[in-house]
Amino acid sequence: MPDVNITPSENGPYIVSGPMTITAPDGHVIEHPDPVAICRCGGSSNKPFCDGTHATIDFDGTLAN
Amino acid sequence: MKLVVNGADVEVDDRHAKTPLLWVLRDVVGLRGTKFGCGAGFCAACTVLIDGKNTKSCQTTVERAVGRVITTVEGATGPVVDAVRDAWHRGNVVQCGYCQPGQTLAAVSLLESDPSPDDVKIDAWMSGNLCRCGTYPRIRTAIHQAAGTLAAGRDPGPLVAPSDVDIPRLTPDEMADPVHPYVRIREDGTIVAYSSQIEMGQGIHTGLATIAAEELDADFDSVRVVNAENGAGPNGNVYGNPDAGGALQLTGASNSMKGYWVRYRLAAAQARARLVAAAAEARDVPTAEVRVENGVLRDGNGRQAAFAELPARAEQLPVPDGVEPKNPADYKLIGREGRLRVDAVPKILGTNRFTIDVSLPGMLTAVVLHPPRFGAKVASVDDRAALAEAGVRAVVPLDEGVAVVGESVADAQRGLRALVVEWDDTNAERRNTVELLAEHVRLLESGEKELTARDDGDVDGALADASCTVDATYVLPYLAHAPMEPNNAACRMREDGVLEVWVGTETPDYVKMNASSIAGVDQEQIQVHVTFAGGSFGLHSSAEHDPTSEAVEIARALDWKHPIKVQTLREEEFKVGRYRAMAVHRVRAGADADGRLTAWHQQIVAEPTSVNLPFVRDVMFTNRGDFFTTTGAVDPPYAIENFRIESTNFESRIPTMVWRSVGNSHTEFARASAIDELAIAAGRDPVDLRRELLADSPRTLRALELAAERADWGSPLPEGRARGITSSGFLGHSANVTEISLDDRGRVHVDRILFALDCGRNVNPDLIRAQIEGGLLWGLSAAAWGEVVLGDGGEIVTKNFDRYPVVRMRSVPQIEVHLIESTEPPTGVGEVSVPSVAPALANAIAALTGTRVRQLPINNTINIA
Questions:
Q1: Nearest-CA distance from B755 to chain A in Å?
Q2: Labelling B327: which of B39, B310, B776, B804 has CA 20 to 30 A away?
Q3: Strand partners of residue B2
């Protein structure tokens, strides 16, 4: 089994199981010991993380077949 | 490491390399204008400028800020900054003020990059910054205003914060004086008004300044307002709420202005009479010859004196008999436009001191880990790793949780992450919110614990005879207050045995009781410093198990050696509850063949709230029933002949607390929705049906008529649009018309909310409008998205703004407030608009889509964009 599992929440962010790291385009590494919500709707003011905006813009997160 | 902050070099210890810049700015550099809101980048209260761009300092580690240009609210200068701040000030944008340093910096960054942004640009740019008071419409206007100022080349110059006012404790003589505890004129001519009501954003300080200046005939700008405290003496509490029995100093129930209208008008009129007497005595002229205007006294011989020349003499004089407040016909300030908030400038400049900003010599800061389930207790603590963290000084098990005490928040928080706690769930609430709701419904259906709150006429007979009926069940979730400033407190035991407590409390007397019982010292030995609250909305009405308790418990455990500040983390605030109760309502209503409402039976199941408020519960929790469960249902403005209200107390381990508009926040959703449902079933227009029911409530009827008229009720709307309406006699007399549309994906957009209000005399019309706007947006957040969820086993799932969405700039509708002129005494406006939002929106959705939403939040049924 892989170490990291990604679960798209219903019309909400990707929930990524931790621990994990994110490497930003400038090379700096964000460490995350816990599960983390990654923006899926594109509306977050806190990318790459979710900030709850998806709920207020009615993001349609239906997965493709 | 070296940081450059506001142009100055700052050396920072290497242990802070991974620390959020926010905490280093606040605790190491001492720049406390930058605020903590969520710690996770959801709210942007922590906004600073990094290389000119608005950036969340809670998401920026110190090491990443090295070599960059960091500008905080304290260091921001220049024409764009001045224009933004001036627009914020003149637009009465600020309410609690906690988010405003971040909001203004975001606006500065926007205008630096785009000098004339349109609404779409503003909405997108500003949607990262949350405001719980709902100042968004004014922020949008202020940004346009600032853009205009800059385009015209005007330079308003920097705002300047007024100096602090020292508030010495009242002496027994001063306390016995009829004027001194409330209004005092100082030797420099400033007038200090001591506000018994806490300023938490609602604007009550400005209301008090208006009353004081009006009655004194003083210059409005010469009035300074401070939070009053420690008014308890041998003859009761001079700051006891005059509209709530006078015993307790308490801010709540939207009755601050109502109480001020009685007490402070008179006190200021008496202060004026004394000044007049002093002037007459000094000049040896009859008092009748002394006139007062704009802070100057003139006698019949044309001689004049400023207020500043007379206070010492005036205070020696007795208050003349028979002094009455001014004749309203002579008002120069009350009821007029143009007052700017007296608390705005320090809040805009970031110099206003909230509880989070308290800093005392030798102070340690604590963060508290609370149980993951309500009612769980600490079984065991392994604090070895926590204590090994640099800067962690102690770990203190508490009555409800474990505190980690550090030299700074960042240290304590590192300690908290390293803490290992086992919880004892023996007495924990183990039900999830679905199970809790099911139990509410079961109790409602069984009626096994039902109490009758009101029973008029023959409800069963009238329902049986009705030619048309509605039987509907309405469901409302637990709701958190989530003010932008998490609830904090600080305390210090002085060498003279006085325990000082700093807290933005709505109830200083509760703080005394709470601190006294934990510390084991007399209440007379507790001195409360009421700080400005970064929002409260009822949350700070608690009397136990709150940050005050925690701060005192920790300080006591550490032998009173250190002043202690408890800094609540956002997740931890959600975990202590104090929610608006979950509520389930069943309404059975009937109409006769003519469509007249003839029968109303409403059953309510909710956890009591007033039981958590000492003294208040003695009058609110009577005959085993809670006033806050039935208020709004039991006392509608409508005349209904056959009318029965029943309530059932729900029991759980989840703490409840008064929440902006309290019982009406749930009862009016059921009432106003069911009336609409009945109107539809009976083929009546919802306004016509209400008009008929309001025959005996002329003021509410007038609000309804005004709202309907201004909203053009009855006129056809374009395809895909609809309106919903409510009316209410809650606090004032009001009506709400909400206009919505559907987009091509079936999402509901709230386009416009029109609110008509009769709140008696409009003391400061613009501040009333600001409260209505804020209340509507507060109600919109709750109606559309608000819900605290407990997961399996009772685990608290909703812990931050990601799962507790509140309205952001891009969803803010057009808001129109229509105030009705009145000569009746003023009533409160902080809560009055909140209950109307959910039912008006649900009624509009039913009109547009045919779907009747009976369960909140609405977004769980139909998406709100």
A1: 23
A2: B310
A3: B11
